[in-house]
Amino acid sequence: MSLATGSTFGGNVEDEDWRFAAKCKNTAAPDIFYSYDAVDIRKAKQECNACPVRSECLNFAFKTLQDFGVWGGLSARERRKVKRKQLQGRLL
Ligand code: SF4
Question: What is the pLDDT of residue 15?
C-alpha cells in the first residue's frame, strides 16, 4: 500500500482512522510497497511487521479488493492465496 503517496481510498472515512498510525505513512521509499521486485517486497513486509495497524490495514485491503502492493504485511499474491483458501473453506 502506499499511504505515503497520499492516495485516496474508497469506503467509509471513519473506518480509515488507522491510517494515521501507519508506519509507512512517512517512509522514505514508498515505492517499495508497489514494487514487483522481490527485495523491495521483502523490505515493505519488514516495515509492516513493525506497524501498529497491520491487521486494520490487511482487513482494509481485503474489504476494498486491493489487487496490487503490499498491505498488512502480505503481498498481492499472498492475499490472493488467503482469499482462495477462504473461498475453498466456504465451498467444502
Ligand atoms: S501494515 Fe504495512 S502497508 Fe499497512 S499501514 Fe502498516 S506499514 Fe503500511
Answer: 73
Residue nearest to atom 3 of ligand 1 (CA): 71
Three-class secondary structure of residue 71 per DSSP: strand
pTM assigned to the model: 0.82
Q: Tell me, using a 6 A CB cutoff, whether residue 53 lines ligand 1.
A: yes
Task: Please report, for the chain, the start and end positions of each structural domain, with discontinuous segments joined by +.
Answer: 3-91
- What is the DSSP code string of 3-69? GGGTPPP-S-GGGGGGGGG-GGGG-S-GGGGG---HHHHHHHHHHHHT-TTHHHHHHHHHHTT--SS
